[in-house]
Structure formats: C-alpha cells, structure tokens
Amino acid sequence: TYSQADATPWLAAAGSGDTLSGILGALLATDRRGRDGEPPPPPGHYAALAAAAASIHGRAGTLAAAAGPVEPSALPAAVSTVIGRLNAPASAAPGCPGVRAEGRVAKRAV
C-alpha cells in the first residue's frame, strides 16, 4: 500500500488529471521490464509506478501552488523541476522530502 501526502488541494482543477495521466504514461512508456528480452516485472511493480506518478504530480502541484491556485499550464514546468530534484543527489535536493541518498522516491507503507 502506498500513501501520497505530498500534494495540495489546489490540484483539484480542470486539467490537473491530464498531467497526472501524462506522468504515469511516461513512466510506463519508458519502463522496459517484460519487453525486449527483459524479465517480467515483480509483483507490485506497476503499483509502484503509479505511486511514483502520484508523488511527482503532488509535489509538482505543491511547487506550482506556492502563489495560490494551480494553473494547469504551470504544472509541466513544475514536474520537470521535481523530477530534476528527485534525480539529484540528496545533498543537492534540500527540502525535497522522500529523496533518499540514491535519489529515488521513497516507498511509504501504510
């Protein structure tokens, strides 16, 4: 089970779900497990990808909502910033909770 608490109520706006769908689609499209001779993904793999998409989306919404309601057109730039922070070493991503030393999204069990 995953929990996503890194979000803002300002994401409840038209177009925000489209951004979430795009993030998940990008994660699925770049996942090579089970294709091109790669072994099949382990159980729960796709749930973890969905959780990562929700986390990225929530953090991007929080970043984009710093000045108030989120404009859906502001989300893509915020998504790029969040992904950059997640890929950076932990020391280079201060204030980005959930980033471990190896720069990956943390699994949060409930």
Tell me what you see in this structure.
This protein is mainly α. It is built from three helices and no strands.
Structure summary:
By secondary structure, this protein is mainly alpha-helical.
Q: Which terms would index this structure?
A:
disordered C terminus, 0% strand, elongated, 44% helix, mainly alpha, 110 residues
Query: How many β-strand stretches?
Result: 0
Tell me the number of helical segments per DSSP (H or I, 4 or more residues long). 3
Kindly state the percentage of residues in helix. 40-55%
Average of per-residue pLDDT values: 79
| Distance linking N and C termini | 6 Å
The largest sheet, given as strand count, sense and whether it forms a barrel, is: none
SSE order: HHH
- Overall form: elongated
Computed structural class: mainly alpha
Summarize the SSE layout with pairings.
Blueprint: H1 16-30, H2 45-64, H3 75-87
Helix pairs in contact: 1-2, 2-3
